[in-house]
Write a structure and sequence with these properties.
Blueprint (H helix, E strand, L loop, with lengths): L8 H10 L2 E6 L3 E6 L2 H8 L4 E2 L6 H4 L10 H5 L8 H12 L4 H6 L1 H21 L4 E2 H6 L1 H11 L6 H12 L5 H24 L5 H11 L6 H32 L1 H8 L5 H11 L5 E7 L3 E3 L2 E3 L5 E4 H4 L3 H4 L27 H18 L4 E2 L21 E3 L3
Parallel strand pairs: 2-8
Antiparallel strand pairs: 1-2, 3-5, 4-10, 5-8, 6-7, 9-10
Helix pairs in contact: 7-9, 7-18, 9-13, 10-11, 10-13, 13-15, 13-18, 15-18
Length: about 400
């Protein structure tokens, strides 16, 4: 795996032509596997003999993983993404109320208001920049970051710092010292947030989690509280940021598909679902570990191996989607794994879908002539092989 990342689709196609499961070498010469095929990934994500807990990671348990390994946080953070069984159900139940259909729908007016404000900001940035503005930094980022921070009760003063630290924490190309520093700084910020909410509780998820811990100290430990907030911050904005960015890129490159939406032959939710499939916001997500030696699609995966979930590959698997799997088609029936499968299915999926649908509809209604300001080939890629998008998206927001 190239720590610097890059567009994954050409390599994914080459590997898928060989097998649905591939051996990979992770940063630091750590041996692992990646599940690439749609059906193989679906089976793996819900397999009863596959776990998320780091105690099943053989190399980590045997002391072979350095403290500054860039992927270490994915394995060791305390929270839902590294919990199994009863622990996972306990942690998920504490957070799930914030993402109930009623609570998510109640966020709609705020999302619509924030979207309108950010579209004004995008227009102002373009006016000050010879008609060009970075859609990622002026629109696609502050929308989900603002929403998740309001949901968690995180003061706006922390938002820029949390995004920068999130980028460093999930990057696979971070050096050991930088990785350790980023994780330390992230924990310091989140500790400050929990201290503030402890002193001044509000109607937010962080206050609710603290209250649950106070009522029953065994329900949520201090490291689990920080780990849960870390997960919510990173997953709550990075993936939706990439989803919106990738959808805009796709529509600008496929004006015929945009026209289908404008004529009512497809809807904005269809754009969201096809983007999730065609250009998944997450390329390879770490980690799951077989709790016994497994054979998946004819490929042996030894017990304790760190395995990546290859969402970007599975989304374009010809075995699942046919010979036109690499084509962006908003009329395609929605069927993908980009939000997960099984017990760890993305808890924030309804919120992400709502945010992206509102953002895209309002963006292209306000700026029907919006287009990229540079060719797709010149867009700088996001660092690392976990997230899948570009680092900047210069656009011309025209009416």
């Amino acid at each position: 795996m190239d720590p610097a990342g890059g567009c994954p689709h050409a390599d994914n196609a080459r590997l898928l032509a060989e097998n649905a499961v591939a051996e990979v070498v992770l940063p630091g010469e750590v041996r692992g596997m990646a599940v690439l095929g749609h059906e193989a990934l679906k089976e793996f994500l819900s397999h009863p003999d596959v776990a998320k807990g780091a105690e099943h990671f053989t190399a980590l348990r045997e002391g072979e993983i350095a403290e500054g390994w860039p992927l270490r946080t994915f394995a060791t953070v305390r929270g839902m993404t590294t919990a199994d069984g009863a622990d996972h159900r306990r942690l998920r139940s504490l957070v799930s109320k914030a993402f109930s259909p009623r609570r998510v729908e109640a966020l709609r007016p705020r999302i619509e208001t924030l979207t309108a404000e950010l579209l004004d900001d995008l227009a102002e940035a373009a006016a000050a920049g010879d008609g060009i503005a970075d859609l990622r930094s002026h629109f696609a980022l502050p929308l989900p970051m603002g929403v998740i921070c309001e949901l968690l009760g995180v003061d706006a003063v922390y938002q820029d710092r949390l995004h920068r630290l999130s980028n460093q924490v999930v990057s696979t190309s971070t050096g050991p010292e930088e990785a350790i520093a980023a994780n330390r700084d992230m924990y310091e910020v989140l500790a400050a947030v929990t201290a503030t909410r402890s002193e001044k509780p509000g109607d937010d998820l962080t206050s609710a989690l603290i209250a649950a811990r106070a009522e029953d100290g065994d329900r949520l430990g201090p490291q689990e509280l920080i780990g849960t907030l870390l997960l919510m911050i990173v997953a709550g904005h990075e993936t939706t940021l990439n989803l919106i960015t990738n959808a805009v890129r796709a529509l600008c490159a496929h004006r015929d598909q945009l026209e289908l939406v404008r004529t009512g032959e497809a809807g904005w939710p269809d754009v969201v679902e096809e983007t999730l499939r065609w250009d998944s916001p997450v390329s390879f997500f770490p980690f799951r570990y077989p709790t016994r030696d497994l054979t998946l699609d004819g490929t042996p995966i030894p017990k304790g191996t760190p395995v990546l979930a290859g969402y970007s590959a599975a989304g374009r698997d010809p075995a699942a989607y046919g010979p036109d799997a690499a084509l962006f088609d908003v009329t395609r029936p929605a069927r993908h794994l980009s939000l997960g499968h099984g017990a760890h299915f993305c808890l924030g999926a309804p919120l992400a879908r709502m945010e992206a649908t509102i953002a895209l509809e309002r963006l292209f209604t306000r700026f029907p002539g919006l287009d990229l300001a540079v060719p797709e080939s010149e867009l700088p890629r996001q660092a690392g092989f976990v997230g899948n998008s570009v680092a900047r998206l210069p656009v011309r927001p025209r009416g």
